[in-house]
């Protein structure tokens, strides 16, 4: 029985890896069940046995990538002691992950017909529940102390992640005027902090009791960060744009070949007014 279960897990991983690799190489147009079956060497019957349908496979891959992104946010957020540095670091970590993993970000945020393929399921929610619980556990004492605005969790998520998701999605699809992701790095951390800070945001955080072990250091910044300090205020960001510009140009240079074609098809007609 154990050997059979191991083979089943191996098949599941092979299908998920093949699906992601196919999307990375071929983009949304090449992401088909036939392509995944050919790339993985797994039978159609086996795919249906493990996932129920091709949509089920897509939902499972979406769940896996969502968990990966949330893992990055958690490992960035938890070592931060102050509400301001935590919120700003979380925003920057989200943007950084999307630049480093452009195809994965496109799958999560900009895949055509995504709403028809992916619906919230118990399995998807269970996959991301631990990370979301850890994020809320970090937020809770700051909200209780008035350092972060006390609003329902869903509203706080919209304030914290909504602007980042919108900026990244526009960048991914090549929307006119949104092709420079460096602008998001420059402005969003401070602007999002301004939207979620509470009335006691400027009060000092209580020092650690004597003997309390230090929390682990936050993860190293990406190489393209150019050795600069994280963004704190408009005055401290003036020297960062060049580093972020290199990030966006590097991301564009390493993007899959289908990205340009998908972006061209995704641009709004000239007659549409963007608001």
- What can be said about the biggest beta sheet? none
Distance between the termini: 57 Å
Please, what is the average pLDDT? 80
CATH architecture of the largest domain: Orthogonal Bundle
CATH homologous superfamily placement of the largest domain: Tetracycline Repressor, domain 2
| Total individual domains | 2
- Level-1 CATH class name of the largest domain: Mainly Alpha
Q: How many distinct helices?
A: 12
Structural class: mainly alpha
Q: Radius of gyration in whole Å, from Cα?
A: 21 Å
Q: Please count the beta strands (DSSP E, at least 2 residues each).
A: 0
Write the CATH fold name of the largest domain. Answer: Tetracycline Repressor, domain 2
> What is the helical fraction, as a range of percent?
55-70%
Describe the 3D structure:
The protein is mainly α. It has 2 domains: 1-52, Arc Repressor Mutant, subunit A (Orthogonal Bundle); 65-199 and 224-266, Tetracycline Repressor, domain 2. 66% of the residues lie in helices and 0% in strands. It has 12 helices and no strands. It has helices at residues 2-30, 33-40, 44-51, 54-77, 83-100, 102-109, 114-117, 122-144, 153-173, 182-196, 241-254, 258-266. The N and C termini lie far apart (57 Å).
């Amino acid at each position: 029985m154990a050997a059979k279960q191991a083979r089943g897990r191996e098949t599941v991983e092979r299908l998920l890896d093949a699906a992601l690799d196919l999307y990375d190489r071929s983009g949304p147009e090449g992401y088909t069940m036939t392509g995944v079956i050919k790339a993985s060497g797994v039978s159609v019957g086996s795919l249906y046995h493990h996932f129920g349908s091709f949509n089920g496979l897509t939902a499972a891959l979406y769940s896996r990538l969502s968990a990966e992104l949330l893992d990055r946010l958690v490992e960035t957020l938890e070592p931060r002691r102050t509400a301001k540095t935590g919120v700003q670091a979380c925003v920057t970590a989200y943007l950084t992950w999307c630049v480093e993993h452009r195809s994965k970000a496109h799958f999560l945020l900009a895949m055509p017909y995504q709403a028809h393929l992916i619906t919230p399921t118990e399995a998807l929610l269970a996959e991301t529940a631990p990370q979301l619980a850890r994020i809320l556990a970090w937020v809770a004492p700051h909200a209780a102390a008035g350092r972060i605005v006390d609003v329902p969790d869903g509203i706080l998520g919209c304030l914290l992640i909504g602007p980042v998701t919108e900026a990244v999605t526009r960048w991914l699809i090549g929307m006119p005027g949104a092709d420079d992701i460096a602008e998001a790095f420059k402005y969003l951390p401070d602007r999002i902090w301004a939207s979620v800070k509470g009335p006691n945001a400027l009060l000092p955080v209580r020092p650690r009791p004597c003997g309390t072990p230090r929390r682990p250091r936050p993860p190293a910044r990406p190489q393209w960060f150019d050795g600069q300090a994280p963004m704190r205020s408009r005055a401290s960001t003036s020297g960062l744009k060049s580093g972020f510009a290199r990030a966006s140009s590097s991301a564009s240079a390493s993007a899959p070949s289908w990205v340009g074609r998908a972006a061209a098809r995704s641009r709004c007609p000239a007659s549409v007014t963007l608001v």
